[in-house]
Amino acid sequence: MRRVTLTQFLIEQQRAGRTTPELRLLIEVVARAVKAISVNVSKGALAGVLGEAGTDNVQGEAQKKLDVIANEILLQANEWGGHLAAMASEEVEEVHQIPFDYPKGGFLLLFDPLDGSSNIDVNISVGTIFSVLRNPEGEGEPTEQNFLQPGREQVAAGYALYGPSTQLILTVGDGVHGFTLDREMGSFIYTHPFMTVPNETQEFAINASNARHWEPPVQRYVGELQAGKTGPRGKDFNMRWVASMVADVHRILTRGGIFMYPLDEKCRDQGGKLRLMYEANPMAMIIEQAGGAATTGRERIMDLQPTKLHQRVPVVLGSAAEVERVTKYHLEG
Ligand code: FBP
After folding, report:
1. Ligand 1 centroid distance, CA of 116 (Å)
2. If you measure from the C-alpha of residue 248 to the centroid of ligand 1, how many angstroms do you get, rounded to a whole number?
3. Residue 228 in 3-state DSSP?
């Protein structure tokens, strides 16, 4: 089979009018940053990048060294790239402006530089999640308000998975496409065309240690799954929880399933655990583009009107039939 690189794939998308030269070039800058992060992640203790950084992020969470390294790599690469009006990162409280002496572009980039931080020191897969929006017309430096657009306004979304191999999963609104990093060539090779989420599944992902905090609809749904053949679902379900959203979502994109980080008594005050702008929205776009569904348990995630850059939301995504069932249980009250 002809090996197609990410650059060739994006140029073909551009020739077919499915993306613009500016967006293609932006995605290539993000891909280059992902390669640099992949090198750091794979070196681990050899490069002294494991462990705490000794600082906290905007969410008050202890930062890992790799959180800081990955964030710096993405900021520096995209500041210089010339395709952005501004950026937003899980690790940075305010909007990150492009230095005055660098060229600017028409896009806004949002990212979680290293997702699944709690797994870094135990060598379990982690990732990077990103979302691209258009910067609304207007004078002056972009503000937080410029970013507060519903997920359906995203022009691209993707994630990198730093696992046994490094993969880049991408959508520009025409299906979901997967690329695998060829370390010898230093290029992402097109390996997974038009990834789709199977509608039916027998696999679910949720942090069951939170069960006592769950709302009744989730108690009911998970209870039925655990009842398996003997219960109303009449079939057995298996559970998986990597605690790296990227890894759990990638499994669902590959073989189906449902991922839930619902609203529970533990995270109710925060509105949820996962962040809307650079975790839930990009993953929702990818899952929907792959034929799945993504809700808060009550509403379509990509229809939510954001109110804050770092706001958190409940997340239920994956195989459409299961997401619809969980949402129905919530709406039945
Ligand atoms: P960050 O690591 O980017 O903060 O992401 C949050 C996250 O690690 C998700 O990747 C994962 O799905 C979830 O938190 C795991 O939560 P828990 O520790 O409750 O299992």
Report:
1. 5
2. 10
3. helix
C-beta 55 within 6 A of ligand 1? no
Tokens of 28: 């290539």
User: What tens-digit pLDDT sequence spans the chain (333 residues)?
Assistant: 679 999 999 999 999 999 999 999 999 999 999 999 999 999 999 999 999 988 887 677 788 999 999 999 999 999 999 999 999 999 999 999 999 999 999 999 999 999 999 999 999 999 999 999 999 977 679 999 999 999 999 999 999 999 999 999 999 999 999 999 999 999 999 999 999 999 889 999 999 999 999 999 999 999 999 999 999 999 999 999 999 999 999 999 999 999 999 999 999 999 999 999 999 999 999 999 999 999 999 999 999 999 999 999 999 999 999 999 999 999 997
Between CA 240 and CA 258 the distance in angstroms is 10
Distance CA 310, CA 304 (A): 14
| Residue whose token pair is 């992949």 | 38
Which of helix, strand or coil describes residue 315? Answer: strand
**Can you point out the beta strands (E) in the chain?**
52-56, 62-64, 84-89, 96-97, 107-115, 126-134, 156-162, 166-171, 177-182, 187-192, 203-205, 238-239, 258-261, 274-275, 293-295, 312-313, 315-318
- DSSP conformation letters of 298-311: SSBGGG----STT-
**What token pair was written down for 97?**
């402006």
Closest residue by Cα to residue 274 from 148, 112, 57: 112
What is the 42 CA–ligand 1 centroid distance (Å)?
A: 20
Does ligand 1 have an atom closer than 6 angstroms to the CB of 243?
Answer: yes
Q: What global pTM score does this model have?
A: 0.97
Ligand 1 atom closest to Cα of residue 241: 20
Rounded Cα distance between 333 and 330, Å, is 5
C-alpha 212/C-alpha 206 separation (Å) is 13
Our answer on whether the CB atom of 187 is closer than 6 Å to any ligand 1 atom is: no
